[in-house]
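Today's session is about reading a structure prediction critically. Students often jump straight to the picture, but the first step is always the sequence itself: look for stretches that repeat, for charged clusters, for runs of hydrophobic residues. Only then move on to the predicted structure, which in these notes is written as discrete structure tokens rather than atom positions. Here is the chain we will use throughout the hour.
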Amino acid sequence: MSGQSNRNLGALLLLLAAPAAAQDSRGISIATFAVARDSASAQQAAVTDFLVRQSFQRNPRYAVLDVEGFLATGTPIQARDQMQRALAQLDKGRQMYDAFELDPAIATLTDSVIAFERGAAALTDMGPYVRALQLLGATHMLKADKKSARNAFERALLVDPGATLQGGGYPPTVLEAYDAAREAVKAIPLASLSVYSNPAAAEVYIDGIFRGATPLTVQRLPAGRHVVRVYRAGYLSFGKISDLLEGTESTLQASLKPTAQAAQFEGLLRRAAPEAAQDGAGAATQELGAWLKVDQLLVVQVTASGNDVTLQAAHTDAAGGARLHAATRTFSFSSQRYRSDVEEFIVGEFRQAQLGVTQGTGTGDQVGTNYAPRRPDRPVHPGFVWGGVSIGAGALFLLTGIGFTIPAVNINNKLARLPQIDANSGKLRSEGQIYFGVAVAGYALTAATAVAAVILFAIAGTEEESVETILQTPGGQ
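Below is the predicted structure for this chain, in token form.
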């Protein structure tokens, strides 16, 4: 049985318990917003809002404001209550599974799955949900209910096709059933889903992956059950389990409910957005930052003109009211590089914000001294260090082999010219064997260190994660 605790469970519990606006142990608290200049720019602004927020969420030096939690302060969010229940039932069900209490485990894990689905609006991390389905399938398999086991496994793999059974101890029957479900999911016919929202220009996540902004049609989704979440700043997230039928286009309409403080929030943000193009921190920007109780505020005004999208961004010290940095850049929204280009712009210009009022010109040039802490330099992976050492040692061994090969060849040539009964032939033959043996050892060690270097570099390359280039990540607000 699997006794491994679910790391995603702890992470999500911490997220649900964290104060919405307070600076947490990760460091600087920041609120980020991309605001459309006009209705024609709304969809582009929604996509940009996600990209900007994600750029800061990936940096451990920043704690990005949970806008929905802040604006709903004092009002229970039912979806988050369901998440807490789902996580608690998952933990209890896992303990029952490990204790081989199969019938109670099935009931408890089923309750966990139902709670996750009822709380789909707060389901930002698919890991615990997938884990509940996996454990439910494994428990059914141990009860010899192959049909229910396959159904649970396929539901888990529809949400996350790459999900594996974590931890050891699963019996072969469970592993075989899971592998069979994986193959079955690969052969599932495709479907499509169109998502609309009121108001429009809301972020759409399918199975935890950001897909774009409403109105949105996503093609080539496997038919079956998927988790859809729709988010827009100022509103309570919408979540629903959508069952897609093969060969058809399903439609989902999300009616977003404003939070208790939505009107005040939208009014402040609407007045603060134009100030991104002005010198210095404007009054509305300072008021917004003070109201949100964050250390820093990044507001991006988004203007769409045909295929071009212009971002006018301003980074403000919300506590002190000083403008840290401002920059403007234009991108092609239809370009496949739009997401990566925007993230590079945000990371380069604002995640290493400058002290002093500096106005970017679209070239990325900056002046001033560092204010916001830089992301700590990633240490060199030990595998790269030892791989380099292995290469250096291999070079020395190779030179040693060559150095001893030359005298061994010379001695062999001398022996070929000497008579068989020559008194010196025995001594030369012994010396030649020594030189030859050392040369062979040198070449063998060269090959061994080369293999070691390849293995070390492969391990280091696998473990080295480049967070700046991960574009489609689960989560978001």
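Discussion point for the tutorial: The mean pLDDT is 84.
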